[in-house]
Every structure is written in C-alpha cells, then in structure tokens.
Amino acid sequence: MADNPDQPYAGEKPAPARAASHVAAEGGTSLVENAFVQRPRREGGQEEDIFDPANFAKIKSRWLLDQFMPGGVVPYFVTSFLICTAAWAAGLALRIIEIGGDWVLAADGYLRSREWQLQPLLLFVHLVCLRLFKSIYSRHFELAFKHMDVPRAELDKASRWFFGFRVNLAALAIAAPFIAYRAIVYFPSDRLLVDYGLASRGPEAYLLLGLWSVEWLMFGYYAWLIVTGAILMQRILRRYDFRDSVDLVLADRHYRPLFAVTTRSTTLVVFFGLIQTAYIAYTAATWGEYAGLIALAVAVVFSFSMTWGAVRGELGGLVRGAVQSLEQSYRASREKLGGMADVAGIEDDIKRVQVQLKMQLALQQLDYLVTKYESVGRRELMGLVFRALSPVGSVLARVIRWGSLLAAVGLSGFAALQGEPPKNTRAQRWENRAQERPAPPENNRR
Predict the structure, then answer these.
(1) How far apart are alpha carbons 330 and 260 in whole angstroms?
(2) What's the CA gap between 424 and 167, in Å, rounded?
(3) What's the predicted TM-score (pTM) here?
(4) Eight-state DSSP code of residue 144
C-alpha cells in the first residue's frame, strides 16, 4: 500500500517545528477572523436598540431645549456637535481676550483645563440623551398598554405630562437646587478659580455657569420623565383592566410591555452614568455631580418598584378571584364525589372519573396561576440588570475586538521580521519524508 504523505508511518521522525514567523502569521489571521466575524442574529430574539435611527426622529413637544433641534440621526448629531464645538471655541476666545496679547499662554492654559477637555463631550452626551429619553417615552408608553382597555383620550392626557409646557417648569424645579448651589455657593468661592485656573470671574466663568445650568435642566427633564412615567402607569393600572383573562395574561406575559419603558430608560441612564462618572473622576467635581448620579439611580429604582408593585397589584386581584373560583369548583366536585354511591356500572364509573378529572384540573390550574403570579417581574428584573450592564458589555466587546486587531498587527509584524514562512506543499512533505526514512538492512536487499 502506498504511503499517505499526510499520515506518519512507524519509525518516522517527528516533523520539524514550523518557523515562528509562520505560527505568528497564522495566529494573527485567526485573531482578526475571530474578532471581526459577524454572527447572525436570532429571529425575534433581539431587543430593540435604543440608538435606533427612529429614536432621533423629531418629536412634537413643548420642551424648550429640544424644540428647535432637527430630526433624523445625521442632522441631530451634526447640530449637537456644532453646538458643543461652538461652546468650546467661545470659551477659548474668552480666555484669550481675558489674558490679553499672550494668546499662546492663554491657549496652553485653556487646553490643559480638564473641565474644557471633557465639557464638550458631556454636553454632547446630554443632548443625545435628551432626544433618546423623549423617544423612549413617546414610542413605548402607549405600547405599554396595548393589552389593556385604556381609552385613547386617557393616553393623550398622560402624554401631555411628558410633552406639554409643564415639563419646562418641572425640569426647572428639579434642577433648581443644583443650579442654586453652583451659582450661590460654588461660583463666588475661591475654589472655582483654583479648580479651573481662572484669574477672575470673567465671561469664561459665566459661560461655564451657563453650560452647567443647561445641563442640570436636561437632568431635571430625565428625572421628571422617569418618575412621572411610573406614577402615571400606576394610576392607569388602578383604573383599567387587561382585555384577556388572567390565565392568558400570565401565560403570554401581557404585562411585559409595562416594564419596557423602565428597562430602556435604565440602559440610557447607565450609558449617561458612565460618561458622568468619568467626568467626575477627571475634573474637580462637587457634591452636586455625585448627588445627581445618586438621584438618577434612585429615580430608576423608584420607577421599576412602582411599576412592579402596580402590575402585581392589578394581577393579584385577578388571581385571587380566579383562585377563589377554582377552590369553590374543587369543593363542589369533592362534595359531589363524596355523595356518589359506590355502585358497579359503567355510567357511574364514568361520572366518578369525570368528577375526579375536574378536581385534578382545578388543582393544576390553581398551582399554575400561583406559580405564574409569583414569577411576575422577576424575569423583568433580571432583564433590567442585564440591560443596565449592556453599555459596559458593548464597550468591553469593542475593546476586545480592537485589542485582537492590535495583537494581530503585532504578530504579523513579528512574522515579517522573521522572514517569509517556508512553503509546506504536499510534494515537499513527500520529499522530506523520503529523505528522512532509514536505509533498509543489507540482508533484506535483493
């Protein structure tokens, strides 16, 4: 039988190790393929992305800070970028004017300011979150009640709490303590000059105070939406019922859309919180930044707790009514079975079996309803946690991908320094193995 060059034979010497450059090149290629391969998504298994382009569409509202912003992803991002760039350039111009002729020294001090290094990014994140919060509550608040008999007029009335003129006053009321601290306590103090390298409280300092005030107003809008959405949802759940029976509501989880607004807003809060935390760690933060993050986290927990309690309260009454009905049916069947005479006969046996089946079915329905009711909100809570961690996971995934790319580039460079990898063709392997075979003994030669 002819030798297979791909299989070793008895007594064959081990093949020489491949060159390090060849191993490095293959390793780099594998890293790139594994890092950037696009895996197909499962049908119906993906949650809606909060950064979907539809979320940046123009939403009709009377919220002043967003009323004149354009719709669409590209126009909105371009406008937000121009606003942030203009604010940064205005700060630089005011610094140069304040110092005077030495604009190089002014620009150097301005570029070294940690506040101005991150302030444009923070303002940009605020503007993005502003539109996304509006989109979440405009697109998903009405969908939350699609399985309930809520009149359209009631939903329109609730929407006015989100997009009416009162939201401006509410945002101002929430932001007022933070703005007051900045304007009355922090701004007149010497710490402001030390933290931001200012010679005096000139136009640049007032520009910073204006930017802080605008950002706190947008923060007040976030908190208003989160808290008000939970209160309105609880109010609607107390006044209206689900269309289907409680067993279908629990089986098909018709209550799930009620948690959608909170879970999506939680993802957005965590995304904003990561940027805000980086800003706090890098700049001279005051108690207001820490209090704002804590207040936003408390608002999310409050919103989910109120929604969870309202859903369980609504379903609890329905479940108790269904359980009471099933218990009455079980007792009636048991009494009927106890009153039946134990007489031989097919008809009597069939009646006893029917009554016993009815009792068993009632017990199974009781267990099913109680089990399903106890699980209400638990899966949504886990989903809330995972959605909260999704921005962190997305960042880590991108870091791993780009880290794999850098590792691949490094291995490829190592391979180039080692030289071209040796060819490993089938014919060359055959020739190498033929040369490495030991010579046969003399007495076996013919």
Answers:
(1) 38
(2) 72
(3) 0.69
(4) G
Q: Please, which pLDDT band fits residue 243 given cuts at 50, 70 and 90?
A: confident
**Farthest CA pair distance, the chain:** 115
pLDDT of res. 24:
44
Query: CA Rg, the chain, in Å?
Result: 35
What's the sign of the alpha-carbon dihedral 195, 199, 200, 201? Answer: negative
CB atoms within 10 A of CB 415: 22
**Burial classification of residue 118, based on how many CB atoms lie within 10 Å of its CB (0-12 exposed, 13-18 middle, 19 or more buried):** middle
Q: Which residue has the higher pLDDT, 443 or 89?
A: 89
Beta carbons within 8 Å of 217's beta carbon, 6+ residues apart: 65, 171, 172, 175, 179
| Alpha carbon 412 to chain centroid, angstroms | 36
Mean confidence (pLDDT) of the chain: 76
Whether the Cβ atoms of residue 144 and residue 260 lie closer than 8 Å to each other: yes
pLDDT at 350 over 80: no
- Grouping H, G, I as helix, E, B as strand and the rest as coil, residue 40 is coil
Sign of CA dihedral 195, 198, 201, 207: negative
**Helical packing angle, 203-239 and 287-339, nearest 10°:** 10
Reply yes or no on whether the pLDDT at 152 is more than 60: yes
pLDDT of residue 178: 92
Region for residue 204 given its phi and psi (left: phi exceeds 0; alpha: psi -120 to 50; beta: otherwise): alpha
Of the candidates 114, 77, 111, the one whose C-alpha atom is nearest the C-alpha of residue 96 is 111
Give the Cα separation of 324 and 418 in Å (integer): 80
Nearest to 300 by CA among 391, 379, 214, 381: 381
CA distance 269 to 386: 13
Domain boundaries, the chain: 53-304
Give, in order, the Cα–Cα distances in Å from 446 to each of 393, 435, 436.
72, 21, 22
Give the number of C-alpha atoms closer than 13 A to the C-alpha of residue 303, restricted to the C-beta side.
27
Tokens of 417: 């320094």
User: What phi, psi does 148 have (nearest 5°)?
Assistant: -120, 160
Cα–Cα distances in Å, from 262 out to 5, 95, 132? 64, 43, 13
Least confident interval from 34-43, 281-290, 409-418:
34-43
Tell me how long the chain is. 446
User: Residue 33 pLDDT > 50, yes or no?
Assistant: no
